């Protein structure tokens, strides 16, 4: 028997044990998460590295999706609807991620439509290449893999989901515990054929010919999956035959196809010996594609709706000059949008201040124009760069972030307090900076141009929609030219007023009225803050909006104390700083905290929230569909919603025609809505679309009228 010595310091020992338990619990809570579970899917990040992690080797990682019964996700070509699973990796230096090695999909019929995807359990493997630049830590020799994944899971309804995953793979030793799952995924990969297939176009049919398939498949019926989306009628009947060792098929071309590819990767699948085998070939297309009817740019007229057939660059305005003209006109009209009104007030004061100095007016006009044009180009370049990196963004994307909405609310509160005379900016800047600003008023003009673009971006004027949609399908330089022209159109009235003597003489002269006008202009600024707080309430809920209001109140108190004089200034400023800091620490996080349920409520019994696949489901039942792509930060959207879309006679027409009304809320970033807009050749809101089975979608004008919608409904 082994006798244990009694503990000399039992209290210290108990404290030590307790601290170990607490530390263990903290480590467990902070441990990496490699599994995300929802009601429809269990998603798990897996790894397969049987030979360890060394330079020159390939490590396989993958996202495994376990679907609940009757639920499915999508292949790289989702078919008639849906959205492919997206994986975005964060890896250490020296580790490179490849593309998803997509397993064989299955065909999923939905009414008179069909999709390609996966049910039950699927693993999406991705190869990681380890280069000599990978230097693991000596103390923790492991490869840390981070994944941001998003997927769309559907049954009769569809649910966009995402998750963040972390997995740490030991550098030395084997990570083959999940080898069986990867082996099954590798067996489900389509094998490349040594010979390319061919496609001949005969009328509205693709004549496909493939050679080099295993002799054991001859005579069998094959499944056919094109990797290029929106080229064939996915759910249509098609025929296939064997001519010796050559497999041929006749597949109908989609009526509203996406482009005319010269090469189409094709995946063929068949069952052999109880196992499903797949083969891939690069089919070269010969012969001219059938000509599609030219499409007029949607939004070019407000008199009649313009059809958009399909999606992609082939269905957008084909002339760059037409797009530039649309951008110029859209920029001009943008000055009449309500979101630009606060900046108009600032410009009126600026013109009046320099009314007797033509040179200052001209320099100010040039500086303002430079600020507007450069800001549009910068915003467009940022959007293009982020989209090329895989982000699903559209026009006005910055206001999909609660942090940006809150920052703008702070900015306009500060500007409003300044216009109201609560403080002067010169109080808080060094005298040298104030002197520089006084000697160079063009700096103010340039900054006001930037501000104008920031607050104008939520608005989409007529003629802008098609031009901005085309910009994202053009080469970078041409796209930036469209953004620059849009900025030029917005700046043109001020540029003309500053350089035209006739217009300059009609401008008001400086006088005592300017002080009153300046104070009055504080109220449009505060009205903009009210709007921004409402937008934030749609994103972060009532607690987020109330928290932002409390922070703005604390900020106003702090600014007021900084303008005090005498002995009380130090005490009051200290109190103001303390109150603002306390508010930030206690409720600041509520401002950007997302709502638990961000789906758009119907708003009325007539409107239903849009989800991916819902349009197709309604069309399959034979019901026409009207979709309102909207956002809380889009002033034009809210105006149309409260006027045209609230019209009693229009709602009666919708009911009489049995139109399904859907509302797609883009207030927060939603990749599924972004993708749906892209298929319509748009990248901003508002967008109004009327769908009918067997016909091309009809995209209506951004400034919607009852007569326009009723005219479109009359064709049903």
Descriptive notes:
It is a single chain. The protein has 716 residues and is α+β, with helices and mostly antiparallel strands. The chain is 39% helix and 22% strand. The chain has 19 helices and 25 strands. The strands form 5 sheets. Strands 12, 13, 14, 15, 16, 17, 18 and 19 form an 8-stranded mixed sheet that branches. Strands 20-25-24-22-23-21 form a 6-stranded mixed sheet, with helices on one face. It has a 5-stranded antiparallel sheet with strand order 1-2-3-9-6. Strand 16 and strand 17 form a beta hairpin. Helix 3 (320-334) packs across helix 9. The longest helix has 41 residues, at 522-562. The termini are far apart. The model is unreliable at 1-32, 293-318 and 597-604 (pLDDT under 50).
Strand runs, count: 25
Number of helices: 19
Residue fraction in strands: 15-25%
Structure class: alpha+beta
Low-confidence stretches: 1-32, 293-318, 597-604
Cα gyration radius (Å): 31 Å
Largest sheet: 8 strands, mixed
The overall pLDDT average reads 77
Broad shape:
globular
Percent of residues in helices comes to 25-40%
What's the end-to-end separation, in Å? 93 Å
């Amino acid at each position: 028997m082994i006798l244990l010595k009694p503990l000399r310091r039992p209290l210290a020992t108990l404290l030590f044990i307790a601290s170990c338990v607490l530390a263990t619990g903290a480590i467990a809570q902070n441990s990496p998460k490699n599994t995300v579970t929802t009601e429809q899917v269990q998603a798990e990040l897996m790894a397969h590295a049987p030979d360890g992690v060394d330079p020159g080797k390939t490590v396989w990682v993958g996202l495994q999706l376990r679907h609940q019964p009757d639920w499915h996700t999508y292949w790289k070509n989702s078919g008639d609807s849906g959205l492919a699973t997206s994986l975005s990796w964060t890896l250490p230096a020296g580790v490179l991620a490849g593309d998803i090695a997509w397993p064989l999909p299955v065909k999923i019929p939905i009414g008179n439509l069909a999709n390609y995807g996966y049910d039950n359990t699927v693993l999406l493997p991705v190869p990681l290449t380890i280069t000599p630049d990978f230097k693991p830590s000596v103390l923790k020799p492991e490869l840390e893999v981070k994944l941001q994944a998003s997927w769309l899971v559907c049954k009769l309804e569809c649910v966009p989901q995402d998750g963040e995953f972390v997995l740490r793979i030991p550098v030395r030793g084997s990570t083959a515990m999940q080898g069986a799952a990867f082996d099954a995924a590798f067996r489900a990969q389509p094998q490349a054929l040594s010979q390319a297939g061919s496609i001949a176009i005969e009328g509205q049919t693709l004549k496909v010919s493939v050679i080099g398939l295993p002799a054991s498949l001859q005579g069998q019926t094959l499944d056919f999956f094109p990797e290029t989306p929106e080229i064939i009628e996915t759910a249509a009947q098609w025929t296939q035959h064997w001519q010796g060792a050559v497999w041929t098929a006749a597949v109908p071309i989609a009526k509203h196809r996406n482009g005319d590819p010269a090469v189409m990767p094709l995946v063929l699948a068949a069952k052999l010996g109880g196992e499903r085998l797949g083969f891939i070939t690069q089919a070269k297309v010969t012969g001219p594609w059938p000509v599609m009817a030219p499409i007029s740019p949607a939004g070019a007229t407000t008199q009649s709706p313009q059809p958009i057939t399909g999606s992609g660059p082939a269905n957008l305005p084909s002339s760059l000059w037409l797009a530039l003209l649309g951008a110029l006109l859209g920029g001009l009209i943008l000055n009449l949008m309500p979101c630009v009104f606060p900046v108009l007030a600032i410009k009126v004061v600026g013109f009046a201040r320099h009314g007797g100095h033509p040179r200052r007016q001209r320099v100010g006009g040039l500086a303002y124009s430079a600020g507007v044009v450069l800001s549009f180009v910068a915003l467009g370049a940022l959007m293009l760069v982020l989209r090329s990196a895989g982000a699903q963004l559209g026009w006005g994307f910055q206001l999909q972030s609660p942090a940006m909405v809150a920052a703008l609310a702070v900015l306009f509160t500060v500007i409003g307090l300044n216009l109201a005379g609560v403080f002067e900016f010169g109080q808080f800047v060094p005298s040298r900076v104030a002197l520089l600003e006084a000697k160079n008023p063009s700096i103010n003009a340039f900054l006001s141009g930037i501000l104008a673009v920031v607050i104008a971006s939520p608005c989409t004027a007529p003629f802008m929609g098609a031009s901005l949609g085309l910009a994202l399908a053009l080469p970078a330089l041409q796209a930036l030219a469209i953004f620059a022209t849009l900025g030029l159109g917005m700046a043109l009235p001020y540029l003309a007023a500053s350089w035209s003597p006739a217009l300059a003489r009609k401008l008001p002269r400086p006088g005592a009225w300017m002080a009153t006008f300046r104070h009055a202009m504080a109220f449009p600024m505060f009205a903009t803050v009210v709007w921004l707080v409402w937008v934030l309430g749609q994103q972060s809920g009532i607690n987020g909006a109330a928290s932002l209001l409390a922070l703005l109140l604390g900020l106003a108190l702090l600014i007021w104390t900084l303008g005090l004089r005498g002995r009380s200034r130090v005490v009051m400023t200290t109190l103001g700083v303390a109150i603002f800091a306390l508010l930030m620490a206690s409720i600041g996080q509520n401002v950007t905290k997302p709502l638990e349920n961000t789906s758009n409520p119907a708003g009325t019994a007539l409107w239903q929230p849009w989800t991916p696949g819902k349009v197709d489901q309604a069309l399959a039942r034979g019901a026409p569909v009207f979709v309102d792509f909207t956002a809380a930060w889009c002033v034009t959207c809210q105006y149309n919603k409260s006027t045209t879309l609230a019209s009693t006679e229009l709602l009666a027409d919708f009911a009489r025609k049995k139109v399904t009304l859907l509302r797609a809320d883009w207030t927060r970033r939603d990749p599924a809505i972004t993708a749906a807009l892209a298929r319509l050749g748009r990248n901003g809101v508002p967008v109004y679309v009327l769908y009918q089975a067997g016909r091309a979608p009809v995209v209506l004008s951004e400034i919607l009228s009852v007569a326009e919608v009723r005219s479109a409904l009359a064709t049903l």
